[in-house]
Amino acid sequence: MGQPIIYLYEQLKEDQIETIRQSAPDYIIIDAKRESLQVVEDDIEIMLGWDKEIGTRLLNSETSRLKWVQSISAGVDTYDLERFSEKDILLSNASGIHSISISEHVLGVLLAEFRGIRTSINNQANTEWTRDNISYQQLSLKKMLIVGTGQIGQQLAHFAQGLGMQTYGVNTSGHVTNGFIECYSHKNMSRIVNEMDIVVNILPLTDETFQMYNERMFLAMKPGTVFVNVGRGPSVNTDDLIQALNTGQLSFAALDVFEEEPLAENSPLWGMKNVLITPHISGLTPGFKTKLLTIFMQNLRQYCKDGTLAKNEIALNKGY
């Protein structure tokens, strides 16, 4: 067994790599995107980003020394969490990095709909000066249910309150969280969702959240509810979503994530006037790698000290 390796699947700048090297002098640093070195895969102990091909081999190797993976995303539903647990591999995510970007995205798509901006863009394309087809509302005083009260949900609630919105939350237990008038548990969501004007999904994908937005949930909402999904596509039953949009149970849906991506060209969603589609861009964040490195370095220093993580460790049995 050779010297342990920190495998950088996410490309970093030279000065960033040097920062890692100084904090972990006992490790070989491999930049997967720059170097063509022959890597003894079983010597990889830490991985920044997830090289699915190598990672799968390591999960199946009896001699692998892989001990920690730092994900570059907030969601970790693409990882084999059961296998991670079996092999006692730590997993941390990038939660918090995307909070402002996703919050701005949610408010942006809502303002585009509520202030008639989407329609105005179409009118401009047709050189039409008209108000006849423009409907408008105010976000102020609207009740927004934010399903997922983690760092992103709290940031969105803070921004939304700045626009005079009333923010309510849903989390696992219904525990009180900063920024929310009241919070409810997942199991009680269907009882209170009919009081909300806007429902925003920010939940990670787990067995419990898979297709939780189905016909039953949509029918529990009050007619004309606005739905925004910046969480995970498979949390929504697409056929039931389309039905709810066609019947007016949902007046509008802003969708950034889908059950299958990219969205199929023949999906009815493309042609629906009460749908705004964005190609999974809500989390795109300026300075992303710098922010990611901040989390990684906190964890790396703690890991080198005692083998634990300081920030964003995933509870493998929960998936978040």
Automatic annotation (TrEMBL):
Span of domain D-isomer specific 2-hydroxyacid dehydrogenase NAD-binding: 108-282
D-isomer specific 2-hydroxyacid dehydrogenase catalytic domain location: 7-309
GO molecular function: NAD binding; oxidoreductase activity, acting on the CH-OH group of donors, NAD or NADP as acceptor
Entry annotated with the keyword Oxidoreductase: yes
InterPro entries registered for this protein in UniProt: D-isomer_2_OHA_DH_cat_dom, D-isomer_DH_NAD-bd, NAD(P)-bd_dom_sf
Keywords: NAD, Oxidoreductase
Stored Gene3D superfamilies: NAD(P)-binding Rossmann-like Domain
The keyword NAD is assigned to this record: yes
Pfam families given in the database record: 2-Hacid_dh (PF00389), 2-Hacid_dh_C (PF02826)
Protein family membership: Belongs to the D-isomer specific 2-hydroxyacid dehydrogenase family.
Protein's name according to its UniProt entry: D-isomer specific 2-hydroxyacid dehydrogenase
Organism whose genome encodes this protein: Enterococcus moraviensis ATCC BAA-383
